[in-house]
Amino acid sequence: MTAPIREEPCWAPDASPGDAPGRATTGAPSARVTGGPTADVAVVGAGLAGLSTAYHLIERDPSLDVVVVDARHPAAGASGRGTGLLGPQVGPAIDRAARRYGPSTARRMYLASVSAVERVVALTEELGAPCGLRAGEQIVATRTASGLASLARQARTYQALGLDVPVLSAAAIRERLDVPYHAGLLYRSAATLDPAALSGALAAACAAKGVRFHDDSPLRGMRPGSGDTPTELLFPSGTLRARKAVLAVNAAAGPLGLPVGTILPLQVHAIATAPLGPEARTALGGATGTSLVDSMSLAPYFRLTHDDRLVVGGGRAVHLPGLRADRAAALRTATWTWLEERLRRLHPVLADVPVTHRWSGQIGMTTDDLPVVGRVGGHPDVWYIGGCCGHGLAMSVAHGSHVAESLVEDPSAGRGPADYPWHRDRAPRVPLTARPVRGLLRAYLSGMDREARRTP
User: Fold this and answer.
1) What is the mean pLDDT of residues 292-312?
2) What is the pLDDT of residue 20?
3) What are the pLDDT digits (tens) for 220-269?
4) Would you indicate the residue range of the signal peptide (predicted)?
């Protein structure tokens, strides 16, 4: 008898039996924003970026009155829907980063992403919450000639920059994962975990330190403060006034009209199996904790969870704004079906394994592959975090730490947080309200999808 498939808007793959899918809470009841509450710092968005900001703020200055507000609840967005890959990635591929920003900056960018991975692993220990953490390696691999050429360019750049990212042959990949890829790059600083569980642990730690939470409060607008006048954050049932504000709202920046450039909202997809048997676990990285990412955009990637399920993500990325609901639903179902077909072809032991969960979630993309972590409209006390381009699990925590440090750092001390290319106030702007531009974007995404489907 086939197990029933749970089609859910979000699901935490490593959730314990009986846990509400994808739900992360503070452990205490949280009311809507009503009336006119005040705070020293208001953080809007209770995903990993917002929770990391609140956590690092209160760690640096326990006297701060910090409030976290979410449109729904902690981890309701991308942080509760991720597939749990924790690897060193930020910005474009290393060879393109070296050409665009120079070798020295490209090297610093990569090392910053490695530090971000290490910080998340350490954070789970600080919080006393395992979060389904599995230390391991990550392989970015290919089965195409164009993929081999791309990985070769990256490998040469890593070597030139003195970075430890070795090339793996097909045989070396087989030693870790019994899958038919031609070659790959090995990232040693990697792990997998449940991002919703990490979000929940961060939320609980913040609440224990006195951070206040408000759920079910979507931001409707903002009036930035000036001098002694606080910033006003407008919600359906009240106005929150704060000396400083952090808008960790990712792709909601567009609907809110924030002047941070274009953060594209794209819906991505994933499936998960029932727990695998011993043979399948061994074949797919159970001994090494290795996850695999295809070098081709939208091609399937996979990892094992701590309870031996296989999570597979990838497939068509969908730009939802302006798309009819029936068309969006059809694309979602078709992508899940394709992911399951690719799952079956990944290894013979997966031919009959039940698929028990299918879900989708929204990420924020920029046209130059870089996040945006900076001030909103030039206001020194209003910050924005978003646009991690699908690599937010490690970098969101790092971004929160950076913003927290920036908010409490004394400018007169003559020092501040390190500066990277993503520490900027805005991304390139794309006029998505224009129908031809939306059409071109969807045609581009459809082309990427067709190319991924042609991959062996």
Assistant:
1) 93
2) 31
3) 999 999 888 999 999 999 999 999 999 999 999 999 999 999 999 999 99
4) none
Helices (H), 262-375: 278-283, 325-346
**Structure tokens belonging to residue 396:** 């969101």
**Letter for the amino acid at 95?**
D
Q: What is the pLDDT of residues 121-170, one digit of tens each?
A: 999 999 998 899 999 999 999 999 999 999 999 999 999 999 999 999 99
**Residue 110 φ then ψ, to 5°:** -65, -45
CA 29, chain centre distance (Å): 26
| Alpha helix ranges (H) inside 291-349 | 325-346
Q: Which architecture, in CATH terms, is 17-84+194-261+367-425?
A: 3-Layer(bba) Sandwich (3.50)
Q: Which CATH superfamily is domain 264-365+440-456 in?
A: D-Amino Acid Oxidase, subunit A, domain 2 (3.30.9.10)
Spatial CB neighbours of 349, under 8 Å, sequence gap ≥ 6: 276, 277, 279, 280, 283
3-state secondary structure of 126: helix
- Minimal CA–CA distance to 302: which of 266, 251, 355? 355
Band of pLDDT at residue 447, cut at 50, 70 and 90: confident
Q: What are phi and psi of 214, to 5 degrees?
A: -130, 125
Q: CA–CA separation, 314 vs 295, rounded Å?
A: 12
- Dihedral of the alpha carbons of 434, 435, 436, 440, in degrees to the nearest 10: 100
Domains of the chain by residue range: 17-84+194-261+367-425, 264-365+440-456
Is this prediction's pTM over 0.85?
yes
- Identify residue 210 by its one-letter amino acid code: G
Confidence (pLDDT) at 47: 95
